Amino acid sequence: MSVIVELVTAGIRAAFPQLGEEPVDALVSVPSGKVSTDAMYQSNAAMRLAAQLKAKGTKMPPREVAAAFTAAIPKNDIISGYEIAGPGFVNIDINTSFLEGVTTKLLNKGVLPPEHTKQPVIVDFSSPNIAKEMHVGHLRSTIIGESIARMLEYIGHDVQRVNHVGDWGTPFGMLICHLRDKFPNFQSEPPSISDLQGFYKAAKKRFDEEPEFKPRVYEAVVKLQAHDPETILAWNLVCDVSRREFQRIYDRLDIDVKEKGESFYQDMMVEVVKQLESAGKLEEDDTAPGRKIAWSSVKKETKVPLIVVKSDGARCGMTGYTYDTSDLAALRYRASQATWLVYVVDNGQSTHFQNVFALGRDMEWVSPKHRVDHVGFGVVLGEDGKRFKTRSGDTVRLKDLLDEGVERAGAAARTTEMTPEQRARMVEAIAYGCIKYADLSHNRTNDYVFSYDKMLQDKGNTAVYLLYANTRVHSILRNPEIAKQNIDIDALAPSHTVTLTHPKEIKIAKYLARFPEVLNRTIDTLMPHRLCDYIYELTNVFTEFYQECYAVQKQSDGSVKVDVNRLMLYKSVGMVLEQAFHLLGIRAIEAI
Ligand code: ARG
């Protein structure tokens, strides 16, 4: 695309010398499926240029501006023609020979990632809380975060996948004390997670109701902060119970995330508070004795401060830190480790992150060179439009949600000859693929409606539709006639030169060539639905291609013609689809 940007910019400069050194933007993009053009690129520069020219005294309608700069674009062997549409959009089409080159490279070398300078990136995602069930909000974070991490890794960044689990604070004092009382032999018989939740509720009840329990809890927290070995052991046991449950979900969904929970920043919080104190950022809060708050430079926007020190600290002879403090410490630490920090956490925490990031910048822990993103997302809704709940109104357990997905996918799957193991793998790929894709294909900032019925449909923008298309590619490539004629596609692919003649061949090649640009945009905006939109369009175009362009065809004389070049195009489609599936965390299936 950069070549096109250069050419269009050159055209603009040549057509309008009166703009002098004034910056101009070629505004080149890849038209999305909603635009009724098969052009490869589009420039939306004319509208803005018309305004710039007007300011310089040249009145010219955008369509004329478009005509003038396209006429001035230097001669080249890439662009084949222009079309001016609507108020002044320029559709730019490119030469088939250029496209053939792009497709040949894709086929020969594989789906290469767009080039980027390697950066250390931290992606904070999933991040459930110990002793609590991982809920659908964490599922969204897990799915989106995994996909973003895969994309960043693919383009060559050095990615740390961080699970910021909630594993610290007063609740753990309660859990530890209650554990000691109820399960004296807890070391040999660890309780299960559902127990652990009820267990936490019971511990909390005692904390609220039993006067002699409270001081023990505070003592346990102090001991935990002081790394007392016996207390740490009990704490680890509690954490392990949850950890195992989380890991079961991660294993099922192919999630890779390393635990570095709130506790990891424990000692760093002391330093953070010290620094805030000496920078004069800490204020006593009048409403609660002992509580210390800090305002960030976005005070006007957020209207709430960060709570850095808890009010109940003094009561138990320790400084009580909060979720805010741990995030400040985490930010400072992460900024020393990476230049790009990504936080995949629900929209409900956006004020929190605005404040944390702003204070981090105010304190210069985060430099202007750092990129810090809160990748927010909406809530999961049931089909009734209300928060996703079970029929009895309870929160849905992720295990049950995945189980039901597998059950429903099993019923929807087509039956072919497969071993039970193959079939189980296929059904899982469909179920988890559908759950992930339904999440990723929606603009993440919106709430989304969770519906098995919708996500398992084989038409429309669903994983099933895309997975089926890919199995079609594979079944064409498996056609027995190919082997009969001694054609080895995999052996030929690295050196085959693609030719494009049929209009649908040209069209599919254009869509294949867009992949790197779409990926760049997806990563720039951290919006996975852009990649989903793209593969959905690609699949639609593939369906047209598939209907019109046969690769293996019986001739009138009874012989069978195998069109190797077409097979190579099929193979290229499969390569791009499978790369995209991988980036979305979806397992491809070859047969169904
Ligand atoms: N444990 C938190 C929750 O369940 C999410 C943590 C997100 N990450 C962070 N750095 N705050 O709400």
From TrEMBL:
<keyword id="KW-0175">Coiled coil</keyword>
<keyword id="KW-0067">ATP-binding</keyword>
<dbReference type="GO" id="GO:0004814">
    <property type="term" value="F:arginine-tRNA ligase activity"/>
</dbReference>
<feature type="domain" description="DALR anticodon binding">
    <location>
        <begin position="466"/>
        <end position="592"/>
    </location>
</feature>
<keyword id="KW-0547">Nucleotide-binding</keyword>
<keyword id="KW-0648">Protein biosynthesis</keyword>
<dbReference type="GO" id="GO:0006420">
    <property type="term" value="P:arginyl-tRNA aminoacylation"/>
</dbReference>
<keyword id="KW-0030">Aminoacyl-tRNA synthetase</keyword>
<dbReference type="GO" id="GO:0005524">
    <property type="term" value="F:ATP binding"/>
</dbReference>
<feature type="domain" description="Arginyl tRNA synthetase N-terminal">
    <location>
        <begin position="2"/>
        <end position="94"/>
    </location>
</feature>
<comment type="similarity">
    <text>Belongs to the class-I aminoacyl-tRNA synthetase family.</text>
</comment>
<protein>
    <recommendedName>
        <fullName>arginine--tRNA ligase</fullName>
        <ecNumber>6.1.1.19</ecNumber>
    </recommendedName>
</protein>
<dbReference type="GO" id="GO:0005737">
    <property type="term" value="C:cytoplasm"/>
</dbReference>
<keyword id="KW-0436">Ligase</keyword>
